[in-house]
Amino acid sequence: MTEPLLRRMCPADLPVVMEIDRQSLPRPWSEATWREELDSPLGLYMVLTEGGAISGHIGVKRVADEIHVMTLAVRPNRRRQGFARVLLKDVLAHPTSVGARRVYLEVRPNNLEARALYSSLGFVQTGVRPGYYGDEDALLTDPQSWLDVVARDVREVSVAVSLLGRIFGRLFVSFLLLTPPTLLGAFEGFE
Ligand SMILES: CC(C)(COP(=O)(O)OP(=O)(O)OC[C@H]1O[C@@H](n2cnc3c(N)ncnc32)[C@H](O)[C@@H]1OP(=O)(O)O)[C@@H](O)C(=O)NCCC(=O)NCCS
Question: Which CATH superfamily is domain 5-104 in?
Fold first, then answer.
């Protein structure tokens, strides 16, 4: 198999995408719904391909400063290769998502694979939407956790850099204070 690639979904992908959905989701979208979603200027729909063949797809929608994960599925015989994780990370790093403050996900309580996926990425459950799927409730994940994880990483790096700066600054000042003037004179002599 060749390296997986990610690209925007187009209407010509729908037959394959809908086939994967039929194999993956209890209530797959109709073609009309798919076309409406692909037409939406708020949507970002991506496919993951291997050797040109679609192995999985994801869709998110940006509304103001919120990202809503609309759909996600990976072809049954291509699961546990890290594809869903790649798809999710890709859409959340995409310019469409930049600046968003919240990420929403709904998942069926009995969908243990998806729940394991989301929690492996740092999402945690924050609520329940009763009857969301008609036949079942939805668990709502913590919309902030993903962005918090990213923000925390950035904060930790900047704190580390500023600490190192301070330590080296102090070491340099101590060096200047403790070094005998004669030795400093010798340093000045160097070209
Ligand atoms: C949920 C789904 C998208 C996961 O796709 P995937 O490509 O197999 O997931 P990944 O390989 O990226 O898995 C990433 C992590 O999720 C967790 N995970 C995924 N599938 C799992 C499973 N069957 N059992 C336990 N953990 C699982 C693991 O932590 C995994 O990391 P690891 O493989 O390093 O242990 C896929 O099972 C699917 O299409 N299911 C049907 C559709 C669906 O439920 N969509 C989500 C609707 S909310």
Answer: Gcn5-related N-acetyltransferase (GNAT) (3.40.630.30)
